[in-house]
Amino acid sequence: MxxxxxxxxxxxxxxxxxxDWFKCRQADDRVNVGRRHENINNSSNNMxxxxxxxxxxxxxxxSNISELKTALGSLLSDLLYATSKICIYFExxxxxxxxxxxxxxxxSRAFRQKKRIISYPTDxxxxxxxxISPNTIWKTENSVVVCLPVLGxxxxxxxxxxxxxxxxxxxxxxxxLQLIENQRKMGCFKSRSRAISVPLEDAVITTNAAYKRxxxxxxxxxxxxxxxxxxxCAELFDPDATSLQLxxxxxxxxxxxxxxxxxxxxxKDNNDLFCQVVSDTxxxxxxxxxxxxxxxxxxxxxxxxxxxxxxLKGKEPISEKDIPNKNLKELEKLLNISIQTxxxxxVISKADESLIALVxxxxxxxxxxxCPDDVHIIKHCFKYTATxxxxxxxxxxxxxxxxxxxxxxxxxxxxxxHLDDLTKLLREIMQEARNLTQAERCSVFLIDTETxxxxxxxxxxxxxxxxxxxxxxxxxxxxxxxxxxxTKGELLNIRDAYSHPLFYRVIDENTGFRTRNxxxxxxxxxxxxxxxxxxxxxxxxxxxxxxxxxxIASAFAVYxxxxxxxxxxxxxxxxxxxxxxLANELMIFHMQVSPEETSQLVCETDTLTDFSLDFDKFxxxxxxxxxxxxxxxxxxxxxxxxxxxxxxxxKDSLVRFILMVKKGYRNPPYHxxxxxxxxxxxxxxxxxxxxxxxxxxxLEIFALFVSCLCHDIDHRGTNNSFQVASQSVLxxxxxxxxxxxxxxxxxxxxCILNTEGCNIFENLPSKQYTRVLDLMRDIILATDLAHHLRxxxxxxxxxxxxxxxxxxxxxxxxxxLLMTSCDLSDQTKCxxxxxxxAGLIYQEFFSQGDLEKxxxxxxIEMMDRERAKIPEQQxxxxxxxxxxxxxxxGRMFIECKDCEDAVYANRHxxxxxxxVLKDRDRxxxxxxxxxxxxSNGDIIGLNK
Length: 944
Hints:
This protein has 944 residues and is α+β, with helices and mostly antiparallel strands. It is 54% helix and 13% strand. The protein has five domains: 2-225, no CATH class; 236-400, Beta-Lactamase (2-Layer Sandwich); 416-572, GAF domain (Beta-Lactamase, 2-Layer Sandwich); 626-823, 3'5'-cyclic nucleotide phosphodiesterase, catalytic domain (Catalytic domain of cyclic nucleotide phosphodiesterase 4b2b); 824-944, 3'5'-cyclic nucleotide phosphodiesterase, catalytic domain (Catalytic domain of cyclic nucleotide phosphodiesterase 4b2b), CATH 1.10.1300.10.
């Protein structure tokens, strides 16, 4: 018998090494189970021939006890589940170690009962197991220990013992051990040499029968489970996690014979577990249990007496015996179930060893306790379904995030429709915050920076003692939970309001409202400054606000900040606009011309001779016209150029327009009404003498003349650089677009044109009306010398290649050139006028320089009265600005060649003065400007 058993063990081991069967045995794809049966059945027909060859080779190889131990160890390692230790003792070694091994109670009981003994982890506290020597290498705490006695030819003869330590013993493994246990007569291992002489046919017959029994038991239980899990996996196609859980839970109940089953899924973001389904019931509201919760001991990892602490910390299964009765009752109450027997198995991710879920089953139908086989069923199930479950949950979270993103976009749309009313906006914020986080109430507090208080003007369910709505609540910025968030600028998620030291419970006592939990978050601007605080109370769909709520609140706070900031800004802007409107009305009122002035100017009819016979000549200096006559002169120029007739300008509208423009100019030394009159006069002379109608259309000439008249309205005597450096109101309005003062001049011109009775364009057709305003804008902006310098090369190219009347670009450049030449036309007049103009300009320059010094800035040389060198600077100005302009103009219009010559003549005089002053110490500016020339060209007024 012993020889036959030896052949059986060795041959079975060798047959397990058959590649076809082994591949099928280890296949992960359970869909091929049917194919595995087919492979095995096909191979069974040829098994006898195959085993004969294998046995022949193996029996020749096994020649001693040591090799037999090795073969048995390899066989058991393959048959049992996750073996960690295998100890095999036969008669020789048993005799040597009899004093140690046979004294062990587990071994002695196995020999006494003449059958295998299986010790499960739950039995390790039995005195018999505890008595095992600590030095025994196969003693363990959390594994299954199998002790298999090997009996000799006589029943009482102890031939050997086999001890194996593994993680799990199922029906398949029990069947394998039963085959070995049935062959008890193993004493003849001593006579191993005789095993070789046994006829091979007898060994094959014995081995073949043993294998068939082994195969049928090995394939039975696991095949059924594999088929069931495959069927379950085929049904797990639901995109909804609750539907998926229902199917998994139903499978677990059927396989473990449990009346109740549920999953506690791990929410890593919130550090808690949540349950959505219990048995066949989907909970209306998911149950959440905080892992560290102060109110519950269910999941406190640090508490060894907590319900799931052992399962979480050690990631080991637990039963109802491991749970304190108090905690078990709390779990029953929380899930509304009754528990008699209980098993909780952690499901661990293979990727990162993190917890996926706690699988809980309760109450066996037959009243028995759950066993290790139930643990194996659960682990076997989630070996294939855990990935589906986690993927579905991740999909649901992504879908939830997508829905929340859509909701936030809708929130933004809703919020930005109430920017005109802060109260409505705050109510909308409160409503949207409640909807996004499923909160019962919401409060919004804004910070009053003047009093350093938190102010709430809109309330959610809070009334006074007389049940009247509150008008306003104020409290110090550092007071309470809202004050803490406002001070720290950090979100605060309070799971138990009454246990928090900052919670102010008086409001609850006065209103009867019970605050359970609070989510309070700051509303911050882009600089991180807190402008307000939003406080949400009582999560309606859970025990507390989650990390997802925190993320939504943080995103929502951005929209709140933008909308509140814009609303406050809008209100300030609205107030400013109203004040500006009042100021404009006041300004227009004081700029209004009297009916007497209008009537007098309307009635007066002037001719060219009333001013000068040379009034329409380039040599005429318009500054010689008395200021009181300038308005009449402007009206005359409108009439003389045919504008009033061509564009149907009413005489009273024209007069009001001229008088309003005059009043629109301030009184700096140079950029005043007289300068505007001089510039407009040069445009008039150009139209009269330079054949502009051959180059420009009528509307362009009309726009040029009006622009010359309006181009410096409300000039403050300072340039664009000063406006930007001083951060003036004008710079704030126009600096982003450039040409600060020029844009202001155009804006003021539009203001006058829009004044009742002053619109000289009122009778223009719609398209021409729009075009003339566009032309005015472009022409006035061209007075910025920076703009002129940018287009100077293009102007020279245009003159060199020839003017194209059909080119819109050439039209625009010519208008810019004409406007600049009109603006600089004082340089084309006689020396006396030019010198006088220089004095006016430097008065403005020095005034600006003094203002810059007052601001702590160092002015440039020409604006510093202590460093300015007027002759040199005038020469530089003429060389770099004026002469290039009039050179291009003279090349294009031969009639303007005398203007260029006049500029050269004035430059020559400045150069003469500069040469004289080189040999002298610095002269006062007044003395420099007093220098003149006699008829012989000699300098007079120079002190010896």
